[in-house]
Amino acid sequence: MLEIENLTKRFDAAFDRPLFERVSLRLSPGESVAVMGESGVGKSTLLNCIAGLEPVDGGCIRLRDMDLTTLDEDAFARLRRRQFGFVFQAFHVLPHLTLAQNVALPLWLLDLDEAAADRRARTMLGRVGLEERADDWPRHLSGGEMQRVAIARALVHGPALVLCDEPTGNLDPERAVGVLDLLFESIHTAGAIGILVTHSPTAAAHADRILRLTRGGLIPEPM
Fold it and tell me: Exposed, middle or buried: residue 33 (CB in 10 Å: 0-12, 13-18, 19+)?
C-alpha cells in the first residue's frame, strides 16, 4: 500500500509559500490514479517527491509501511531500483541497445545474470505484443511501439509503484488509447500501484480514480 499524508512542497525552503500542501492519498496494490491540475500546480513535482528526486517540506510518504521521507539518498536509490517503475513522455528508449536489452536494463541494475535477464525481458516484450521484435533496434519502431517498450521496461522487475508522467503526450490519439489500455491493464495484472500525471481527460479516464491537484491538496474528480 502507498500512503501519502499531508505532504507539503514549497517553492523555496526559505519562503513559507507552498507549491502544494495537505496532499494525502492512499492506494492499494493493483489500483491506479490519475492526477490532473493546472500547469504549474506541481504535478510533476509531486511525482518527483514520491520518487525521492526532490525533498519534501512536510508530511510523509509510506510504501509498504516504510516512511520514504526518512531515507537517505543511497537508500532511496536502492529502493527505486527494486520497487519503482517509470514511464515518461519522451520514452527514454536507448538507441544503441536492442529492444530486449532496453527492457533488461532494470534487471541488470539488480545484478540479475544476463541469460535470466534476457529471458524475462523477452517474456515482458511478449506481454506488450513485441516478442518478435526483441532483437530489433529502436530506430525501427513507431512512437506507440517505443512506448510499449518503455512500459515493458517499467514493469519487468516487478515494481510495487509505477509513476507515469504524460506517457502519451507524444502519441496521436489512436495510439495513445492503445498504450493507455496496455499500461493500466499491466499495472493491474502485476498488482502494482500506478500514478499517472496528465493534462488529458481522455488519458485520466483509464485510471481507477481521477484527482485534481490544487495548492491545498488533492480533490476527487467525477469519472
Answer: buried
